[in-house]
Amino acid sequence: MTRAYNFCAGPASLPEEVLQQARDEMLDYQGLGMSVMEMSHRSDVYGHIAKTAENDLRELLDISDDYAVLFMQGGASTQFATIPMNLLGAGQTADYIVTGQWSQKAQKEAVKFGKAHIAASSEADNFFSIPDASTWQLTDKAAYVHYAANETIGGVEYPFIPDVDAPLVADFSSSILSEPLDVSRFGLIYAGAQKNIGPAGIVVVIVRRDLLERSPNSIPVMMNYRVTAEKDSMYNTPPTYSWYLAGLVFKWLKRQGGVKAMAEINQRKAAKLYAYIDGSDFYSNPIDKACRSRMNVPFVLADSALDKRFLQQAEEARLLNLKGHRSVGGMRASLYNAVPEAAVDALINFMKQFEKDNG
Ligand code: PMP
Prior knowledge:
- The chain is of the alpha/beta class and 359 residues long.
- The chain is 34% helix and 16% strand.
- Strand 6 (150-151) and strand 7 (156-157) form a beta hairpin.
């Protein structure tokens, strides 16, 4: 059996080495006679697994002690509510930059908890671009400014970290660990695990410790950042196996040379796919070149009547999950860390052949 190349947007491809290690440790973790799934989260062995994962993540992203690293539940979507619950005080305003479906969802959820002002939006441009930062209508003394660093559905990625006075809050679900990141620029970073971190079930939250003081006691304890930090993300039973697998992915990343090495490979993967698409009349990508995503590359065929055949033949060639998001159609190739460069080469070769046969 050979593994197929998987371009799924999430849950996404995991490194083969990580899956092999998980397989080897499945029935008997390090001679203990049980799997990681079957051990108490309060045990010393599991505590070590959890702490090692956190420390490796800290090392990979160079996260200082000024920040708490939380492993929470409910996915990134629950963070859309958790963030305003913790950080948006009574009478305050939070600013939202809306550049796609995910940042729009975050803003719509925040409205339920207070003033969530849309400081800029590219909706009128079909979310094909990022509004120039000089045009953002930021609120004086905003509680925070929220944006989505990479819009997974639209394929739009910020090529810069916004420079704002208020604490910066960013959804990095689909681009965390894909390149070095200056965490010190942020108040809070969050990322659902199921793209570049591990299997679904965990969302990583990196939050500046001074912001923990804002968490009110009145909110549900499971959504309280301060309590989560105080309890080392184990107020209740965490998704232990997902956390363990995330730890294996962090070790794998370190073996690859860390995020700097990944950034070079990711840059190369995306650049060659965009270059091929741009050079062809058969395929196209509508996103402003200044903010095209390195992680999610949407593209359409000039003749959408061929979509079905494209997807069917791709699957036969063992190139999986290339169908675009149901809301936008077309195709999308997600090129996360665990998608090897050879997968992108195979995809481009397939696209060339398909163009030759059908163009
Ligand atoms: N934000 C972004 C950028 C995403 O890509 C996703 C999931 N695709 C979400 C938020 C929602 O994540 P979850 O399914 O973990 O709630």
